[in-house]
Design goal:
Elements (H helix, E strand, L loop, with lengths): L1 H12 L6 H17 L4 H11 L1 H27 L2 H21 L1 H8 L2 H4 L2 H11 L6 H27 L2 H32 L1
Helix pairs in contact: 1-2, 4-9, 4-10, 5-6, 5-10, 9-10
């Protein structure tokens, strides 16, 4: 365990592998290879790690790309899932009814910012974990992918919702509202996945 802690520290400090999940994958490979080699750990660790520099950097890049791609795939899986479609349909009907009863101005006063407000607590939690040693790229890439969509809503789409007619505005708004709720589900699934990995 002490030897693993030494390798982990080298990967973190010398090679800048800040994400635990990537660091643990590389650590597992290096520890297995080092265990099969001959010699005393303290004498061979520096030379071994220097010899593995290219492997560490290439594997880090490969895994980073893969996890980022996984984040986007998870967003797509969420959008095309049955729970999302049902939530989207219910939200569309509910918000269309509210606009019909109370008017679009009332709706925009109280609801137009919800797709940004709802996911904010979870995004803040992930931002905090990014500043700690518990950061994981798997969940961070998922959160980053979702937040990119929510920022698109904030800077571009919200203006369309405010200017559009009722039917179009409700459909677009309901999509982002449903996505902001499903964000919690997707994050929980990702956390469960990382617990299995580590």
């Amino acid at each position: 365990m002490e030897n693993i802690a030494v390798i982990d520290k080298i990967l973190f400090k010398k090679y800048g592998l800040i994400y635990r999940d990537i660091r643990f994958e590389i650590l597992d490979h290096l520890a297995s290879e080092l265990e099969n080699s001959e010699g005393v750990f303290d004498e061979k660790i520096s030379e071994f790690m220097a010899a593995k520099k290219d492997f560490i950097q290439k594997t880090n890049q490969l895994l980073t790309r893969q996890y980022s791609k996984n984040g986007l795939q998870q967003v797509a899986k969420t959008v095309f899932s049955l729970p999302f479609i049902l939530l989207y349909a219910i939200a569309t009907l509910a918000f269309y009814y509210l606009i019909a009863v109370h008017g679009k101005d009332w709706f925009l006063t109280y609801f137009d910012i919800l797709p940004i407000v709802i996911p904010a607590p979870l995004s803040l939690i992930e931002l905090y974990s990014l500043c700690t040693s518990k950061r994981r790229l798997y969940t961070f890439s998922l959160v980053g992918s979702f937040n990119m969509i929510f920022m698109t809503y904030l800077f571009l789409v919200i203006h369309l919702v405010r200017k559009a007619d009722n039917i179009y505005a409700v459909a677009v708004f309901s999509f982002f509202f449903a996505l902001s709720l499903m964000y919690y589900h997707a994050y929980w699934v990702a956390k469960q996945h990382t617990k299995k990995l580590i």
